Amino acid sequence: MIPQDFLYPEFEVVRNPVKCINCRICERECANEVHRYDAHTKSMVSDDAQCVNCHRCVALCPTHALKIVQSDHTFRENANWSGQTIKEVYKQAGSGGVLLSSMGNPKDLPVYWDKILLNASQVTNPSIDPLREPMETKTFLGKKNIVIERDAQGRLVNNLPPQLELSTPLVFSAMSYGSISYNAHASLARAAKTLGIFYNTGEGGLHEDFYPYGTNTIVQVASGRFGVHKDYLEAGAAIEIKMGQGAKPGIGGHLPGAKIVGDISKTRMIPMGTDAISPAPHHDIYSIEDLRQLVFSLKEATDYRKPIIVKIAAVHNAAAIASGIARSGADIIAIDGFRGGTGAAPTRIRDNVGIPIELALASVDQRLREEGIRNNVSLLVAGSIRSSADVVKAIALGADACYLGTATALALGCHLCRSCQTGRCNWGIATQRPDLVKRLNPDVGYQRLVNLITAWTHEIKEIMGGMGINSIEALRGNRLMLRGIDLNEKELSILGIKYAGE
Ligand code: SF4
Ligand code: SF4
C-alpha cells in the first residue's frame, strides 16, 4: 500500500499530566488503540492518528485528565479547495478506493426545520393545558376508507384495512442486526413494546430472541432478501419493502464478510464470512406494476392481515413516485431524507444525492391530496428528525408519523464520531465485537429510549396545546400552523406555507 502518513491527524488527544494517574482505563476502553502506557517514561502516550473523537476515554477517565480537540493544523486551503477536499484526494490517491462514511450528510446545506416556525394561540381559539385536558397522540398508520359505512341499524361498519396503532407518532428507524449490535436491538425491541410503538428490523432479518416482540416489530424486505422467510413475515406487525434509503439513494448495501459472524450469519441466512451485498435494485422490480406484485405477494403470504410499507429515498421526483406507490396497494409510504443516518455509505453518495425531507414531504403530501389519493396511504418520514419540534413541523407539513434513527442511536449512547463503518464502535452500538457489544447495557438502553420518547411526547402535547390543537389528527397537514423565515418564494411555494408576518 502506498503510505498516506503525511496526513496530519484530525484530532489531538490532550492529556493533563498533573491529573493523569496512569490507571490505563483509556487504554482498555479504546478499540482504536489510541492510548498506551509507556513503561520507559512511566506515563501514558497517545497515537492521535487513530482517534475518531468518540469520547469514550473522556467520559470514563476518573480524573477528567483527557480532552479531545479538533486539530488546528491547516492545509494551504482556499474557498475552492478546502482542507477536507484536499485530504480526501490524498486518501484516495493512497488507497485507490471509494471513500466510505457513516451517519448522515454533514454538509452545510439548509435545514428547513430551522427555517419553519410554529404558531400559538393567544386570544381567540384558546390554547389547551395538556396537564389538565386530554391530548390525543395516538396515531393509526394505514389505508383509510374515504366513506364511512353504516349497517342497517346505523352502526359503524369497521372494515378498515389493517392499521398500525401507535401511542405517539414516533417509530424507531430501520437498523439491521449486523449494522448494529444485539444489545442495541434488544433495547429497541423492549422500548417499542413498553411505549406502544414500533421498531424496524432493517434488512438483516429478525433474531430468534426478538420474535416475542413481533407485535411491535416492522420486518423489512430489502433487495438482498436476507433473513426473509414465512415465519419472519408472520412475526412482524407490518412489512416494509425497502426500495431506497436517504443516506444512499440509488445504491445497495454492503455488510463486509468480517461482520457476518455467529448469529448474524444465521439470522441473515447466509454463510459466515460472506459479504452481505444488497443489490441497488430489487431484481424483480422495474415498474410500479412489479412493485404491486411484491406488495400483493406479501399480503397474500400473510393473509392480508398486515399493512405494507414501501420505503423510498427522498429524490427529485419523490411526489410522482409516491403517487405510483399509493396506487400499488401499499398502505404506508416511508420517505427518507438526505440527512438520514447509516452504518456505511460511499461518502460522495451520502453527501451529494437526494433532497431534504422537508421539501420531499411537502411535495408528496400536496400531490397525493391533489390526486385525491391521500387517504390511500399514510406517510412516515425520516432523515434527521432531531427533536419534538421537528416532529410537530413534519406532521403539520403532512406526515402521519416520524421515523427516528440518529436520535435513537444518540439515546443509546452514540457520540456521533461517524465511524460506524469501522465496526469498532466504542459505545457498543455499531459493532459486533463481543467485548464492545457488552458495553451497551440493554436495560440502560431500553430505559433511555423510553425516557426519550416519553419526553418528546410531553413536548409534542405542549406544543399542540399551545396551538389550541388537541390531537395529532387535527395537526396533520395543518400548514396554517407553520410560517417560513429566511426562505425564498420558491421554497415557500414547495413547502406550501406563508412567510412569518403574513
Ligand atoms: S483514563 Fe485518565 S487517568 Fe486513567 S490513564 Fe487515561 S488519561 Fe490517565
Ligand atoms: S454508533 Fe458508535 S461508531 Fe457510530 S457514530 Fe455512534 S459512537 Fe460512533
Verbal overview:
With 502 residues, the chain is of the alpha/beta class. It has 2 domains: 11-97, Alpha-Beta Plaits (2-Layer Sandwich); 139-157 and 169-472, Aldolase class I (TIM Barrel), CATH 3.20.20.70. It has helices spanning 25-29, 56-60, 83-95, 182-195, 230-235, 262-268, 288-301, 318-326, 347-352, 357-370, 388-397, 406-411, 434-437, 442-467, 472-475, 489-495, and strands at residues 11-15, 35-38, 43-46, 66-70, 100-101, 116-118, 139-141, 164-166, 170-172, 199-200, 217-221, 238-242, 253-255, 276-278, 308-313, 332-336, 345-346, 378-382, 401-404, 482-484, 498-499. The strands form 7 sheets. The chain has an 8-stranded parallel β-sheet. Strand 15, helix 8 and strand 16 (332-336) form a beta-alpha-beta unit. The longest helix has 26 residues, at 442-467. It is globular, with a radius of gyration of 24 Å. The chain binds iron/sulfur cluster (SF4) (2 copies).
Mean pLDDT: 94
Strand content: 15-25%
Class of the largest domain, according to the CATH hierarchy? Alpha Beta
N-to-C CA distance: 61 Å
Structure summary, number of beta strands: 21
Shape: globular
Number of domains: 2
- Total helix count? 16
Ligands: iron/sulfur cluster
| Biggest sheet descriptor | 8 strands, parallel
CATH architecture of the largest domain: Alpha-Beta Barrel
CATH topology-level fold name of the largest domain:
TIM Barrel
Q: What share of residues is helical?
A: 25-40%
Overall structural class, as computed from helix and strand content, comes to alpha/beta
CATH superfamily of the largest domain: Aldolase class I
| Biggest sheet: strand arrangement | 9-19-18-16-15-12-11-10
The rounded Rg comes to 24 Å
Q: Which residue ranges are poorly predicted, with pLDDT under 50 across at least 5 consecutive positions?
A: none
